[in-house]
Fold:
Amino acid sequence: MGNLLAYSGTATKIRGMRRKLLTAKDFQHLASLTSVSDAIGFLKTKSAYAGIFANSNENSLHRGEIEKMLTNAIYTDFQSIYRFATIHQRKILDL
Structure:
């Protein structure tokens, strides 16, 4: 029972973060968009991505820059989970 309680907080945090990610329907809509600026505009409406693109002009971003921003967001999410985790959980998460 102790192990279950030890991981429940972290699992709840991850579920909360996951809830903000794109759904299958969102991916279909994103794939139907015809321009990069439309795609960024759509992502700005989603809470998980709004902060990433908040200070960006979607008309001037290049695909490489967007990929870099999204990759950095993955590291930021991992860092958030890592900081929330206990010392024992951090040992498991160490790369």
Summary: The helical segments are 2-19, 24-32, 36-44, 47-53, 63-84, 87-93. The chain has a mean pLDDT of 89. Residues 2-93 form one domain. The chain is about 75% helix and 0% strand.
